[in-house]
Design a protein that fits this description.
Blueprint lengths: L6 E2 L7 H18 L5 H12 L10 H26 L3 H13 L7 E2 H5 L7 H11 L6 E4 L6 H8 L3 E5 L3 H10 L5 E2 L6 H4 L8 E4 L16 H12 L5 E7 L7 H10 L4 E8 L13 E7 L15 E2 L2 H11 L23 H11 L11 E3 L3 E2 L15 E3 L5 E2 L11 E3 H4 L11 E3 L8 H17 L5 E5 L8 E5 L10 H10 L1 H73 L4 H18 L4 H6 L4 H4 L8
Parallel strand pairs: 1-2, 3-4, 3-6, 4-5, 6-7, 8-10
Antiparallel strand pairs: 7-9, 8-9, 11-16, 12-14, 13-15, 17-18
């Protein structure tokens, strides 16, 4: 989605997510009262939550708009299920949800981050249309690969579904963890969501509004970004499940540029509904680009080249809901257990965890001799793709040895993948035979041994001189390194025992270094937080002093105006006295002139001036009262 909008500098203050959540809680009563959240109310909530203004760089308007979206999620978390019970049909729910969305300000200002990553959250009415198309039941597990601030997720939860949420943006992921504590939140690149989620995370429904033309860690426009998101999510979907996606209007099977891609998609799932949507539907969220809602059921199409006819461009969500109700076929049956656990917890998640596990499981006494090195035996084979097999549309394929076989070697204990391009071509047959300990097959998997073989092959073919093995710690803040260099009298393949003993003996040292590095990082973080706290306190004092100065200046101006008003009043009193000595037409004329003069000068009551005065406390309330 390429949008031209005003862009502001990105701001990522400390603790952005908690502050946004605090601002959202301040905005929630407005929604509960049916009261419009205007710019002044939003600014007040943000300044209260962040302790400073946007002019000071404490927050920007992207964060303010996200606070509005989070307030909507909080409102629906509190009242959504009751609303859904009262309004049973999607059409009857549209009015209340549109009213809630209408209470929030239009997102007219964009940040650099939202612009770069196309962070345009799904408008609530359009989210309702996606929910209606998904036909979620309490038995469903719903995956949202780019969950944003949770506007679609809260609708899915209100419909009774369990959630698997993923969001790459750090602040938004933090918000999701707070808003949906009962469900896991992962932080993967959604274009590869199928490769990252564990095998037991099998959604029966996918709701998605992916970036239309940008990808993480890739500069410039990526025309197939949305396609990559859809392909990976569809691969993860349970057979018979339903995927509902919101994309750019041009991403459809009737578009010549995408027809072949959709034909490939229909090898896995059939497109059962697609309709473009007028850009006015997205106007509240900062863009007027036309979009599209597409529904795919995971059942291969009878004829992948045949597509369901689109009803056209929906001018509004009400029309879209009518099309969904009349044209979308019912869900396919899905047979699965309701399991939501996309994150493995058994394996250590950190280097320290792996080291600790290794330290606890290794023998108490290391051998005092170098193990005997023997030549690793393996055989080379001619690899050809299995008959009838073809590459999938996924970015990655299952990894397997292709050009060699290692008798006695065990498969790798975890799933390995390789790019589709690499999987289509077998690597060359190696000839290098490494000298390794006799029990190496019990220590390394076949994939790891293959890596050793090809590494040696590359060194033998292309590198002259001596070998050097370097071990180092990638842990931030830890400078630790060991190295072993081959000499004319000593080959490195004879020194593996020493290498292993040295590395195992360094575990405690490494743990101590990492603990020290973590302590230092924590100290720096505390120092940064203290600096932030000091800045907030200093800003609090400055704001209080400014309020006092401005109040005194206003009071001085009022006193000057009061003095002037008294002088003018004395003029009119004296003029009225003198008129008593004038008779006839001249007096009538003078009285008329005097009334005209009074009307031009307006209210000269000194008390009206003091009513306009704003005290220091009315201008600014101290945040820190302990000083």
């Amino acid at each position: 989605m390429n949008i031209s909008s005003p862009v502001t500098d990105p701001v990522t203050p400390l603790g952005a997510a908690p502050a946004i959540l605090a601002a959202a809680n301040l905005l929630l009563p407005h929604l509960e009262r049916g009261q419009r959240v205007d710019t002044a109310a939003l600014r007040s909530a943000m300044e209260t939550a962040f302790g400073a203004s946007d002019a000071n760089g404490a927050w920007d308007w992207k964060l303010a708009y996200e606070a509005c979206e989070v307030a909507t999620v909080l409102f629906l978390r509190k009242y959504g299920k009751a609303l859904f019970r009262k309004a049973a049909s999607p059409a009857s729910r549209l009015g209340p949800l549109a009213k809630i969305a209408g209470l929030l300000p239009t997102q007219t200002r964009r940040s650099e981050e939202s612009q770069s990553f196309q962070q345009f959250s799904t408008p609530l009415p359009l989210g309702l249309a996606a929910l209606a198309a998904a036909a979620i039941t309490p038995d469903d597990v719903v995956l949202e690969p780019s969950a944003g601030t949770g506007l679609m997720a809260i609708l899915a939860q209100a419909a009774g579904g369990s959630l698997i949420l993923n969001e790459l943006a750090e602040t938004r992921a933090d918000l999701l963890s707070s808003l949906f504590p009962a469900f896991p939140v992962t932080r993967f690149d959604a274009t590869q969501i199928d490769d990252y989620l564990t095998t037991d995370a099998m959604p029966s429904v996918v709701l998605m509004n992916p970036p239309f033309s940008v990808m993480a860690n890739v500069e410039g426009r990526m025309a197939d970004a949305a396609y990559r998101h859809v392909v990976s999510a569809l691969a993860r979907l349970t057979p018979g499940g339903r995927l509902v996606t919101i994309t750019g209007a041009n991403f459809g099977p009737e578009a010549k540029a995408w027809r072949d891609a959709f034909i490939r998609l229909q090898d896995r799932g059939r497109v059962v509904f697609t309709a473009a949507i007028d850009g006015a539907v997205f106007a509240k969220h900062g863009t007027s680009i036309d979009t599209r809602l597409t529904v795919i059921d995971k059942l291969p199409a009878d004829d992948p080249s045949v597509f369901q006819a689109s009803p056209g461009i929906a001018p509004d969500v009400a029309t879209l809901l009518g099309w969904i109700e009349s044209q979308l076929p019912p869900r396919l049956p899905v047979s699965q257990l309701k399991v939501v656990s996309p994150v493995r917890t058994a394996a250590p998640k950190t280097v320290r965890g792996s080291l600790a596990r290794a330290a606890s499981s290794r023998p108490a006494v290391a051998p005092a001799f170098d193990p005997e090195g023997v030549e690793l035996t393996y055989e080379t084979v001619d690899w050809t793709p299995p008959e009838g097999a073809r590459l999938s549309d996924a970015i990655y394929e299952e990894y397997a040895l292709q050009s060699l076989r290692i008798p006695g070697a065990e498969p790798h204990p975890t799933r390995l993948v390789q790019s589709a391009a690499m999987a289509s071509v077998a690597p060359p047959k190696p000839s290098y035979r490494p000298m390794l300990p006799a029990d190496i097959r019990t220590r390394l998997s076949n994939a790891q041994l293959e890596t050793v073989i090809y590494a040696g092959e590359a060194h033998a073919d292309h590198l002259a001189g001596v070998w050097t093995v370097v071990a180092y710690s990638p842990h931030p803040g830890v400078e630790w390194q060991l190295s072993w260099q081959e000499t004319s009298k000593r080959s490195l393949d004879r020194a593996f025992g020493e290498v292993i003993r040295k590395l195992e003996g360094s575990v405690e040292e490494l743990k101590a270094l990492m603990d020290a590095a973590d302590d230092e990082a924590a100290r720096k973080k505390r120092e940064q937080e203290l600096q932030w706290e000091r800045w907030r306190r200093e800003e609090d004092k400055r704001s209080e002093a400014k309020a006092r100065s401005e109040s005194l200046q206003q009071l001085s101006d009022i006193m000057a105006d009061w003095t002037k008003a008294l002088s003018v009043e004395m003029f009119f009193v004296e003029a009225e006295k003198r008129m008593q000595m004038v008779d006839g037409e001249r007096r009538v004329h003078l009285e008329s002139r005097l009334r005209l003069a009074r009307s031009m000068l307006g209210d000269l009551d000194p008390l009206s001036f003091i009513e306009q005065w704003v005290s220091p406390e009315e201008r600014y309330q101290r945040k820190f009262m302990d000083e």
